[in-house]
């Protein structure tokens, strides 16, 4: 770990413009904002077919500009295609020629503009009354039925796509914040790996569970590639339970014991040879009952040894309401400074958080 000797009798608040936010993303598998930084190349055509078969999910993962384009083009294409058919049948029947000695297929349809208007009125059942199909051309009557059925399908699919896209609430995760660094230290007589998380919204997530993965990089000899190994770790709440309560910023704990991949403690100053810690929060949105997942990652330079997070407890205002500040969510305080061994071993803190 990259460390710098500092005083052990004061807490340190991390800077929001730390180098870990600006220059070290190229070494991450997961960015600080939770985006996966793995690009798939030379994908088999068989895999691409699966994307097409599951077109609805593929469209949901697309950006909003593509969703809106599909929404608009779905209507414009159906209007235009059926307008061309209406104009073609009118032309074959002679409706485009001024003549009063024959029965028209569609009244008042004599050019593309009028055919387009009739197509829009038919698909959306507007029925202004100036244009209408007649029983003299059964094929036109069948085409009207066909457009009505297809129009309902287009409206249902596009509306479902937009509604589902809105209901996914991917931006809900932006209200979940993680501490800028993780901590490793002895709490209540046990070695603990600590990460703090908070929820800004008034309607908090429910059934929140914290998970983690340790990423180990092993260079492959005679190549420019690395072997990446993922080791899962479990996080508990401050009370030892699996479910977190985010009424105020909460600290997640991973106990480093014989069952932990970070054991033994003698190697913790090297973070157990791991290069990245990926932390995931899963919860359910209270208002929509939909599950979301929020991620972040910590490099070894972002894991502070011999420290714990400054306690954040709600206070009471003069009017009797509780208040809680998120200002110190990333503030860390040194521990184990009262013994000579603790002073020798844990006089560390990351210079980027000074």
Your description of this structure?
By secondary structure, the chain is of the alpha+beta class. The protein has seven helices and 16 strands. It has helices at residues 19-22, 45-53, 55-60, 64-93, 112-123, 138-167, 340-345; strands spanning 106-107, 132-133, 176-178, 182-187, 190-199, 206-219, 226-234, 243-244, 250-255, 276-284, 291-299, 303-305, 307-309, 315-316, 322-323, 332-334. Strands 3, 4, 5, 9 and 12 form a five-stranded mixed sheet that branches. Strands 6, 7, 8, 10 and 11 form a five-stranded antiparallel sheet that branches. The protein has a two-stranded antiparallel ribbon with strand order 1-2. A hairpin with a 2-residue loop joins β4 and β5. α4 (64-93) packs antiparallel against α6 (138-167). It is elongated and about 100 Å long. Mean pLDDT is 78; it is low at 1-8, 16-23 and 337-354.
Shape: elongated
pLDDT averaged over residues: 78
- Write down the Rg: 31 Å
The biggest beta sheet reads: 5 strands, mixed
Tell me the helix content.
Answer: 25-40%
Enumerate the spans where pLDDT stays under 50 for 5 or more consecutive residues.
1-8, 16-23, 337-354
Extended strand count: 16
Structural class of the helices, strands and pairings?
alpha+beta
Give the helix tally.
7
Query: End-to-end distance, in Å?
Result: 15 Å
Strand content: 15-25%
Order of helices and strands: HHHHEHEHEEEEEEEEEEEEEEH
State the assembly state of the protein chains.
single chain
